[in-house]
C-alpha cells in the first residue's frame, strides 16, 4: 500500500477517534481557548472562524496547493557549497499597501546554497513577490539583509508610518562565511533587533538592538495611533516599549513555569503573538512535544503546534495541551504528506478585517528523508480566505 494511502487512512482513523471522545462541557470562554464563546445552555464552544475542536484550540486548516508558497530548493548554481538550492525556513506575508493584488513574503533564506543545518550564520532575510495571490507561488526579488539575520517578522506600524522588520543576528562580512557548517550562538549573538522603512521595498534603517534573546514576536500594544509595542521572545518572555527604537524594553511577563524546562511536555519555541477582536491575547508556537515523545529525541513529528492565550498581556497565560496544527498536511491534489519538521508558525490576517480572522498559516517545512533541505509552506485556514481571494479576483 502506498505511503500516501496509509497516511490518509491514519488521518481518517484519528479523526474518528477524536470525534468519538466526549467533549468536556465548557463553563466559560477560557474553556474555549478565547477563540470562541461558551454557549451557556448547551455548554459547548462556538468557535470563531478559523478555529475548530471542542475547545477551539485547533486551526481549521484547508488543503494546501502544491507549488505555492516559497520553494526554490531545486535551484542550482556551481558556486554553491551544497545542493540545497535556495532553502528557506518560514516567513511573513505582507499585502502591498498600494497594490492590493501584490503580495510580499519576507522569508528566512540560507546563502550559498546552504540548508537549515547551517542556519547560523548563513541565514539572511529575502523578499519575494506574488502576483497570483497570497498563497503564491512567490518569486525571489531581492536580499533585504546580509547574513547573519534570522527569525524575520515584518509588520506595518500606522503610528510610525513605517514597516518594522524584526530579526535576530548581527551583520558580518560576507567572506566570514566559508561553509555551511553551523557555529555556536556565542560567536553569532541572538539579540533581537529591529529596523524601519517607509516602504516594504526599503530603504531600511540600521538595526536597533531591542533585547537580548531570540525568536521575536511583536504586536502593537494599544491602538493604531500608538507607537507602543509588545514583544514576545523565546521561553515566552514578553516585553513592552514606548516605541520600536527604545532603549528601555520592560519585561512584563517572565517565562511561565510550563516553558522553562527542556524536554518537558509543555516545551515550546518560535512564538507568534496577536490580539483578537475582543482584546484577548494569543500565541502560536512550535510545541516541542514532538521531540519529547521521541525515544531518541530527534523525531520532530507529527504533533508540532500549540496555542496559548490570556486575558491580558501580563497573564496569566494558559497553555493548551492540544494540537493546534501538525506536520501532516493535506493537499488539493488529494495527496497527504508528513513532514520531518514543521516549525516557525505565523498567521496572516487581512488589514481590512476587524474580526482578526486567520486566513493563512505560514511555516517552514522539511520533507522526510532530508537532512537540511527546507522550504516555506503556506496553507489556507477555514473558509474566509476564499472570500478574501474572491474580492481580489482570484477565485
Task: Using brief descriptors, characterize the structure shown.
25 strands; Tachylectin-2, Chain A; 5-stranded antiparallel beta sheet
Describe the structure concisely.
It comes from Neocucurbitaria cava. This protein has 395 residues and is mainly β.
Description:
- Keywords: Disulfide bond, EGF-like domain, Signal.
- It comes from Neocucurbitaria cava.
- This is EGF-like domain-containing protein.
- It is a single chain.
- Helices cover 9% and strands 36% of the residues.
- With 395 residues, the protein is mostly beta strands.
- It has a single domain, classed as Glycosyl hydrolase domain, family 43 (Tachylectin-2, Chain A), CATH 2.115.10.
- The strands form 7 sheets. Strands 17, 18, 19, 20 and 21 form a 5-stranded antiparallel β-sheet that branches. The protein has a 4-stranded antiparallel β-sheet with strand order 5-6-7-8.
> What number is the mean pLDDT?
90
Give the C-alpha Rg.
Answer: 20 Å
Low-confidence stretches: 1-21
> How would you name the CATH homologous superfamily?
Glycosyl hydrolase domain, family 43
Secondary-structure element string: HEEEEEEHEEEEEEEEEEEEHEEEEEEEH
In quaternary terms, these chains amount to: single chain
Most strands sheet: 5 strands, antiparallel
Report the sheet-strand fraction. Answer: 35-45%
* Overall outline: globular
Category by helix and strand content: mainly beta
CATH topology: the name is Tachylectin-2, Chain A
- C-alpha termini separation: 35 Å
Q: What is the number of independent domains?
A: 1
CATH level-1 class:
Mainly Beta
Amino acid at each position: 500500500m502506498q505511503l500516501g494511502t496509509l497516511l490518509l487512512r491514519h488521518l481518517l482513523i484519528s479523526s474518528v477517534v477524536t470525534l468519538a471522545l466526549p467533549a468536556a462541557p465548557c463553563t466559560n470562554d477560557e474553556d474555549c481557548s478565547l477563540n470562541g464563546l461558551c454557549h451557556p445552555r448547551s455548554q459547548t464552544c462556538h468557535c470563531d472562524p478559523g478555529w475548530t475542536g471542542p475547545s477551539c484550540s485547533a486551526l481549521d486548516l484547508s488543503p494546501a496547493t502544491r507549488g505555492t508558497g516559497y520553494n526554490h530548493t531545486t535551484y542550482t548554481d556551481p558556486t554553491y557549497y551544497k545542493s540545497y538550492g535556495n532553502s528557506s525556513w518560514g516567513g511573513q506575508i505582507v499585502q502591498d499597501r498600494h497594490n492590493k493584488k501584490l503580495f510580499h513574503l519576507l522569508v528566512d533564506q540560507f546563502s550559498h546554497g546552504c540548508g537549515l543545518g547551517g542556519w547560523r550564520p548563513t541565514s539572511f532575510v529575502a523578499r519575494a513577490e506574488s502576483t497570483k495571490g497570497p498563497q503564491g507561488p512567490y518569486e525571489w526579488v531581492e536580499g533585504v539583509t546580509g547574513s547573519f539575520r534570522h527569525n524575520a517578522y515584518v509588520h506595518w506600524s500606522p503610528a510610525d508610518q513605517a514597516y518594522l522588520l524584526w530579526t535576530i543576528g548581527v551583520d558580518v562580512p560576507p567572506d566570514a562565511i566559508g561553509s555551511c557548517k553551523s557555529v555556536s550562538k556565542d560567536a553569532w549573538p541572538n539579540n533581537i533587533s529591529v529596523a524601519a522603512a517607509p516602504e516594504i521595498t526599503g530603504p531600511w534603517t540600521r538595526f536597533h538592538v531591542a533585547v537580548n534573546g531570540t525568536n521575536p514576536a511583536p504586536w502593537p500594544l494599544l491602538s493604531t495611533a500608538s507607537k507602543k509595542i509588545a514583544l514576545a521572545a523565546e521561553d515566552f518572555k514578553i516585553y513592552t516599549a514606548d516605541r520600536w527604537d527604545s532603549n528601555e524594553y520592560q519585561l512584563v511577563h517572565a517565562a511561565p513555569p510550563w516553558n522553562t524546562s527542556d524536554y518537558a511536555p509543555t516545551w515550546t519555541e518560535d512564538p507568534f503573538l496577536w490580539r483578537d477582536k475582543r482584546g484577548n491575547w494569543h500565541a502560536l508556537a512550535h510545541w516541542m512535544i514532538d521531540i519529547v515523545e521521541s525515544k531518541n529525541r530527534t523525531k520532530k513529528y507529527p504533533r508540532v503546534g500549540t496555542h496559548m492565550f490570556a486575558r491580558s498581556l501580563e497573564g496569566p497565560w494558559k497553555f493548551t495541551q492540544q494540537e493546534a496544527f501538525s506536520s501532516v498536511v493535506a493537499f488539493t491534489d488529494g495527496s497527504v504528506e508528513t513532514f520531518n519538521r514543521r516549525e516557525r508558525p505565523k498567521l496572516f490576517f487581512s488589514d481590512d478585517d476587524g474580526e482578526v480572522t486567520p486566513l493563512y498559516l505560514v511555516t517552514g517545512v522539511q520533507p522526510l528523508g532530508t537532512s537540511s533541505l527546507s522550504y516555506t509552506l503556506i496553507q489556507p485556514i477555514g473558509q474566509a480566505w476564499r472570500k478574501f481571494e474572491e474580492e481580489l479576483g482570484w477565485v
